[in-house]
Structure formats: structure tokens, C-alpha cells
Amino acid sequence: MSSTELRHTALDAVHRSLGATMTDFAGWDMPLRYGSERDEHVAVRTKAGLFDLSHMGEITVTGAEAAALLNFALVGNIASVGVGRARYTMICQADGGILDDLIVYRLAETEAASSTYMVVANASNAQVVLDALVERSAGFDAEVRDDRDAYALLAVQGPESPGILKALTDADLDGLKYYAGLPGTVAGVPALIARTGYTGEDGFELFVKPEHAVELWRALTEAGEGVGLVPCGLSCRDTLRLEAGMPLYGHELTTSLTPFDAGLGRVVKFEKEGDFVGREALAEAAAKARQNPPRVLVGLIAEGRRVPRAGYAVVAGGKVIGEVTSGAPSPTLGKPIAMAYVDAAHAAPGTAGVGVDIRGSHEPYEVVALPFYKRQK
Q1: In Å, how far are 56, 161, 238, 296 from 32, measured between CA atoms?
Q2: First and final CA of the chain: distance in angstroms?
Q3: DSSP strand E in the chain: where?
Q4: pLDDT over 90 for what percent of the chain?
Q5: DSSP letter assigned to residue 361
Q6: Beta bridge partners of 50
Q7: Phi and psi at residue 288, to the nearest 5°
Q8: CA 343, CA 236: separation in Å to the nearest integer?
Q9: Among the listed residues 226, 219, 163, the one whose alpha carbon sits nearest the alpha carbon of residue 191
Q10: Least confidently predicted of 44-58, 101-115, 339-353
């Protein structure tokens, strides 16, 4: 395969048959939208949406010292994750810069004294994360395996998603907590059923073998027909996660930022046993954030109609006080919204006089706490 050739998921033909607008995303040809991205967004908030997320990067870590390796390689306390549970965490450089944000699932024990974990990386960083884990595994009795081709990943998100899935599985979904996963069958297909997602709604992510992806997509589509399930592309996934205040790598998270800069210092567990990559630099970053945070991640809601985009300057009193990291029209709020890093002096919700420089015009914005949207439980 040439370096310019895009990778295709197992559902590629399905997306094309549905008339999807396709786009290059991290080297994958992915559906951006099927029809109206606004309608897809609203479907997830009010009914349900079906996503192909097979571009995500799955890495399996197994062995007697799998937990010790992950505790050393990542900033979280992975050793404390129970079987069948998942944890949001990060992998950092030695200088504390974020390489990626991850979800780590602890899978069922396969044999005595051996643990198995699945690390799910962002598509754009999968190779970087894999290389870092392999490098950091030296001296540990653990194996790091590239399983990106072993899985297709489908997600059903939205308030109707539990009902849709219940029609297709005997798995105990009522007992499945948020950030947990269990093996089961969905429409006769063996799957890891995880109660995770990136939309701010209740929902599930289903890890299956690629050869089962099409039949599972069809079964889910059929089961969701009566309750308004629609296929959803990456475009509405972005507006959903933005409303939910969830960071996106390359926007809110980069190698030039530590978890403390991003307001996510809680994922760094200094109390865990042993050393971990970045510990010293992150301890310094934590102290600095407590004393004098340089910039803070905030939400911005437009007073007008103009949409801010990543990289636009945030201004106050004629000075640049920050930068937009993500911006889009919010279908739920009916106004343009953005996440931005701004100087701490302007970060309090309700701070007056803040605007975004949109092509030379300073558009007024209200500073708000994140997230913009929180589902009613």
C-alpha cells in the first residue's frame, strides 16, 4: 500500500451505499456525514446514532507484568482497574507533554497470573502510542501487540441506545456501568460490549472482528428503525463531543501541553507505586498549575452568529488573551460555541469584554464553564 493510499474500514461499502460524504481522517477514508450533520447530531441527543469508529487504534498488552508496564508507561493507576472496567488516561512524554489520551480496558483473565488490557488510542496517534509502549516495555514480562487490524468498532449512542442493544443481546446491560465492558454476543456476533462513548450521551461501543462488522451494522440499523436511529459521521461526532466539553487530540491536547495545562490533572496518579514516564516534569507542572496557571481551558458562547475556528485569537481590551482550540455551531444551544485556552485572569465564567477575532472583527463571546451540555440522568 502506498503512503498516500487511504485505509478503508470493513464498513466502507456500506457507507458508500448510504451516500456518505467521505473524508481523509488520519489516513483512513471515513464517513463525514450521510445527510445533514445537524440532523445526525440531534438524533444522537434525542434518539440514537450509529457510528463506524474502526479507525481507532487497539493495542493489546498482556502478561504477568502487563499492569506494571502500563503503570510505568501511562500516567494513570492502571493496576487498580478491575476486570471488566475501563479507565480514561493519558500517555505523556518525559517532559510531561501529552502524546495521546486513551481508554484502557482490563479484559477477563486468560490464565493464572497473566492480565490482558486493551489500550485504545486515537487514530492519528495509534502508531506513536504503539511505538512508545513497545519502547517502554523493555524489562517488563509483558507483550505489546498491534491489534488495529483485529477489530472493527461500532458505536450506538443516544438515549434509545440501551433499548436498541437489548433487542439484540442477552448481556446484562442494566448491570453494565459507565466505563465498563463485558464480553457477549450482539445479534449472534461475539463482541466486547463497552459502555463508553464520545458524545455526552449514554451509549455503547462494540468491538468485533472486521468480518462481522457488516452484519452487526445491519442488525443494529434494523433494531433501531422504529426509534429513530440514524447513521452518523465524524462531523456530528465532533459537535457532540464539543458540546460535552470533551477534548480532542491535536486541538485541546498536544505535546506542548501537560494534563495540568488542559485542566485534566486528575488523570495523573502520583500516589501509585513506582516511577512512571513524565513523573518529575508532571509534578512540576502540577505545582505551577496550583500557584499560577498560565492559561485555562474555558467554554465560549457567541452572542452573534459567526462561528469561531481553531487557531482564532481570543481578545479582551485590545489584547490577545488566548486562542480557540475548537469551534462550531451548536445544534443544541442554537449558537456558535468554542473551547479556548485563555489567560487565567479572563477565565472566570461571566468575565466581561471577551471576544474572538474573526477575520479582523472582534465578535463578542460569553465565557462559560465546561461542558456546554450535560445529559439528564
Answers
A1: 15, 21, 10, 30
A2: 46
A3: 21-25, 28-33, 48-52, 57-63, 86-92, 98-106, 115-121, 143-146, 152-157, 181-186, 189-194, 203-208, 229-231, 295-302, 313-316, 319-330, 335-343, 354-358, 361-368
A4: 95
A5: E
A6: 156, 231
A7: -65, -40
A8: 29
A9: 219
A10: 101-115
pLDDT band at residue 108 under the 50/70/90 scheme:
confident
Q: Using a cut of 0.90, tell me whether the model's pTM lies above it.
A: yes
Grid cell in block for residue 283: 509534578
Q: Is residue 1's pLDDT more than 50?
A: no
Mean pLDDT score across all residues of the chain = 96
Cβ density class 323-359: b for 16+ within 10 Å, e for less? bbbbbbbbbbeebbbbbbbbbeebbeeebeebbbbbe
Q: What sign has the CA pseudo-torsion 120, 122, 126, 129?
A: negative
**pLDDT tens string 252-290:** 999 999 999 999 999 999 999 999 999 999 999 999 998
| Rg of the chain (C-alpha set) | 21
DSSP H helical ranges for the chain = 12-17, 37-46, 66-73, 126-136, 161-166, 213-224, 234-243, 279-291
Q: What is the mean pLDDT of residues 107-127?
A: 88
Residue 147 has a pLDDT of 98
User: How deeply is 321 buried, as exposed, middle or buried, from its count of CB atoms within 10 A (0-12, 13-18, 19+)?
Assistant: buried
